[in-house]
């Protein structure tokens, strides 16, 4: 899937390399930062791409006001400032640059852990103010202490391995990481309730999602070691700020290192009191703010835009890859050229399936079955089948991004399974309350083109090339003559380029014509 990318708005302070790279390849770029929402919406009407960091909020309102927007790029990791659901429904691609700033975020986290342990920030401030408070700022060693890492993804595991060098024992929790996986980078996996009483420091590296909002809350502080220190370089809102302030004031929490806040920049309570608290070391969302990280994410997002831009020559486009797909797994799959003909086949089979059930698409259950070696893990084919099924049955704007959302809304469910076997095929079976059960089977031949192998129980010996100008006729019994169908088509002005038959419980005739297939009516024959 690709986009005509003529003009891009960069609405946050992204490194200049991003603009340079896009401009070098003929993409027009406008940089306007801190735009009020109405101005952002007005400006976006002129652009098909938008690049942001965390400051611009790409809300449903902004997306609704930007009819030409096709792609949003986040030069960074967290996408909680982008309404992914609204973007997906609109068919807008969302990309990010996962990993581009992980080391920088990790290093800031480690420095906050060390600053907390040794009171670096308040001691420095006190000295600048003319005091010599050696006793007041006595700290603690990290050696032998337990660091709990919540979220063992890219940043969490980098933090763990660095803090192990200080002799810290690292424990952690992540629903997606097994105990063996965690052990491979020196972290003992524990349940959260086991972690609270043993941790001296807790550092958070999860996304902000409903399951992690207020993960560190008042009840948690009651279960923790008295004086536990909290570090949050992930997202504001994962730590309940009011509960943290209370715990700092009553001693349940011994200190906090905060880079992120519920409101950025912070203007209200309790955030302001937290920042001013003597046991808090706070930075203004600086995790990714290093030259290295900013250059990396700027180049990575520009490269991904270029990889998808249809107005960039294919040989240039192929130099770049899409590495941070947020809302369209099928998009990543299209980057592998070997998948492309299968994606086309699945779309054509989806279109044929819709024709088989006379367009009665809503409330259809679809089963997609792949066979043959190398066809495992092709889950993205379901999106393509749905895009084919829904073509012409939904409002404008259907694409591979929003097909699953639109299908779900239409009550269409889809599942994919894989069977062994030698021949590489895709079978799409549709089950519909009124239209009954039908299936189409296809394959991709050596010419990389999609072929229909069978409809229901009728098999085309050589396969039939699928695509435009393919007419399918079903005879109600095998007595219906192919000659009758062909003559009727010719009499209607069709130029026939090929014919094929398949016989099962019904007879099927596949006819390719040079132009659009004329509408014909023959008793006992159904045009599909
Ligand atoms: N401060 C900054 O400037 C800065 C910079 C980069 C990233 N970040 C933030 O850091 C966070 C982590 O980034 P990352 O690149 O490591 O992401 P990641 O996706 O690699 O890792 C996140 C991990 O959190 C885990 N997780 C999800 N729900 C969880 C839960 N309920 N409990 C425990 N773990 C859970 C996931 O399974 C995943 O392994 C993100 O929120 C990101 O936005 C902040
Ligand atoms: O999620 C991220 O990538 C970080 O929070 C960085 O955000 P920023 O690009 O606004 O610095």
Automatic annotation (TrEMBL):
It catalyses: (2R)-3-phosphoglycerate + NAD(+) = 3-phosphooxypyruvate + NADH + H(+). Keywords: Acetylation, Amino-acid biosynthesis, NAD, Oxidoreductase, Phosphoprotein, Serine biosynthesis. CDD domains: PGDH_4. Pfam families: 2-Hacid_dh, 2-Hacid_dh_C, PGDH_inter. PANTHER family: D-3-PHOSPHOGLYCERATE DEHYDROGENASE, FORMATE DEHYDROGENASE 1. Belongs to the D-isomer specific 2-hydroxyacid dehydrogenase family. This is D-3-phosphoglycerate dehydrogenase. It comes from Gryllus longicercus.
